[in-house]
Specification:
DNA-binding; alpha+beta; 10 strands; 5-stranded antiparallel beta sheet; homodimer; 13 helices
Chain lengths: 343, 343
DNA sequence: TTTAGCACTCAATTCCTTCGAGTGCTAATC
DNA sequence: GATTAGCACTCGAAGGAATTGAGTGCTAAA
């Protein structure tokens, strides 16, 4: 079913207006607000748009609100890219310039930037360590039988895991094992380190093959159970919107967004795409049926390693959010690049 | 002003009832609910208690609600310690048994346990690294000019900080410096390491005195700007209570509780005391004027290094919360002790 | 000193009315 | 044939009056 030019214009006006006001848009308001047709004409078109499924009426004597189908169309075809003002760009840039204390800090700062500038809730996924290449592994003795494993990858990501160590391995040997593993597996992807290469251990490591094997598998597995996987920011921003003036809705939303495992899965899935826009019931999460999620991926050395995004009510300002995400994506890749400077 | 026995009994009954129901308590209800005096008598006593400042009336034709003064009295003198059921104790213990992946994980688990069992919001402060003794320092090269500093203390706490390194220091020298510092400062308190001992550097380190000095001060300073200082859990639990059925109140609360710096300061202050109970306006935070905060401290090697607590509405179940905190305190110190096993 | 009794208060609830934004339909107009 | 003016109609929101009932203070009797 094709929509003619006029229907498109009217639909767009309705979506734009509803994004601003959150209240149903009537034909008269549209007609007065710069549309070149009378309210009656608009009314007829709106009736058509409703039967086509693009609009809905909360009740007979109210205006129309856009359906998810309308948002979909809006995002895919009608939306005009918003332009960020210089101030905003500068503001955004500021969040990145001052945080050069490592990947973690930058990504946390990203989340904060996103939530503060969009006024929605921001999510940032920590980079997937599996695709990164090992730079350095260091085992640090804690107590007899326990050690701390610190992993550094080419993306600068580090991760600490407490591991069990056979009691007969002393501090010096831990150090030697660290150096040996670093030398042997340097520049291998984390995900392949444990699976493929464990068998090829030679020299000193062969005596400790069992330990090394369990160590490496532990490192990969601990990543998925790690708590820093997702950084959230601005969760309470949503309470500003009339959609969440009901505490129960707010609670449902907050509870959903704090399921970090789910959020991680969502972002991970999205990280293979440059951008995604998921509207209302397109979301898998129960609690996001009235929300939209917009994400962008970020890369290190050309490989997508993670994604970040924004959650807002379905009537979110998609154009603006996408512009911001694009801007952040650029900033982020620049900063991450500076951490990795291939030698 | 002394309260006679009967006034105390009535006051306690009102507080107990109000903690449960959150709605003003009337004389009739009390009289029917097991009090041995008629509603009229109770009414007279209530009028007295009101003029004494222990009760307040939302409006003329409503029952009475306890004032902060009443809660204070209740907590200090009237409350009977609640007894945790065996199931609850077991449940609590379960949170600790399974999380032996390091201090961080245990404390996060503590927060979760507290919030889930109390149904309030839980806060746990990460241990103050300054009072702990250095076990191991390891500098791991990242890129030329940058390195990752990993600090391990006697409490098992570790912390990563990205630091700048003069370009002429290579990986081998970083390793040597790490070992030298570890050897020299092992078992010194972190807080004294940088201030006192920097001058006494001898041997190899003296050539790099400038670098080592900046490194050590950076380590101590970075702790205070660290983001993991406070672990929050169950922030949305508060939305269950009628006190927060108004979204604005909820928002104020959530915004306050997410000011991690403030929360850290609050907990840090409380960590010198075994237990604290701070009621309503006794709280410094604007957003906690209708909340109470109950905390307990935890120790490592006999030194208090941090605290944890619960935030709830002023009508929280103080007796129960205190019992739970006490139980958690015991569990926590046992588990932390197991991390430190002095060799 | 305690309590029964009673008049009084006031928030909460319910029911009604009014108001107005918005609609659909029809007939006149371009 | 498309557009628009006009009009009756719908229905939620807002406001107001009446009702209800839990709770009080006060007084007088036990």
């Amino acid at each position: 079913m094709e929509l003619d030019q006029r229907k498109l214009q009217i639909l767009r006006a309705i979506v734009d207006e509803y994004i601003l006001s959150a209240s149903p848009v009537g034909s008269k308001a549209l007609s007065k607000g710069g549309m070149k047709w009378s309210s009656a004409t608009i009314r007829n078109e709106m009736a058509d748009l409703e039967t086509l499924g693009y609009l809905a009426q909360p009740h007979t004597s109210a205006g129309r609100i856009p359906s998810e189908k309308a948002y979909r169309l809006y995002v895919d075809q009608m939306m005009q890219r918003a332009h960020l003002s210089d101030e905003e760009s500068k503001l955004l840039y500021g969040y990145f310039r001052d945080h050069v204390h490592g990947v973690d800090a930058v990504l946390r700062s990203t989340a904060k930037a996103l939530s503060e500038i969009t006024h929605y809730t921001a999510l940032v996924m920590m980079p997937d360590i599996g695709v990164n290449r090992l730079r350095h592994l260091q085992l640090i003795p804690l107590t007899p039988g326990k050690a701390l494993a610190v992993v550094v990858t080419d993306a600068g990501v580090s991760q600490n895991t407490v591991i069990d160590v056979p009691e007969d391995i002393g501090p010096e040997e831990l150090d030697r094992i660290s150096k040996a593993i670093t030398a042997r597996f340097s520049d291998c992807r984390m995900s392949t380190v444990s699976s493929k290469l464990v068998r090829e251990l030679g020299g000193e490591l062969s005596q400790r093959a069992g330990f090394v094997e369990s160590l490496l598998s532990r490192l990969c597995e601990s990543q998925s159970s790690d708590r820093h996987m997702v950084e959230l920011s601005g969760t309470t921003n949503m309470l500003e919107y009339p959609e969440y003036s009901d505490v129960n809705k707010a609670k449902t939303f907050l509870a959903t967004v704090e399921q970090k495992d789910d959020m991680y899965r969502m972002l991970k899935k999205a990280s293979s795409m440059e951008f995604t826009v998921t509207i209302g019931s397109e979301n898998e999460q129960e609690g996001f049926q009235d929300c939209s999620v917009v994400t962008a991926s970020y890369r290190v050395n050309g490989t997508p390693v993670g994604s970040f995004g924004v959650i807002g009510p379905t009537r979110m300002d998609y154009a603006r959010v996408l512009s911001i995400l694009k801007n952040v994506q650029t900033n982020l890749s620049t900063v991450l690049q500076s951490f990795l400077k291939e030698e």
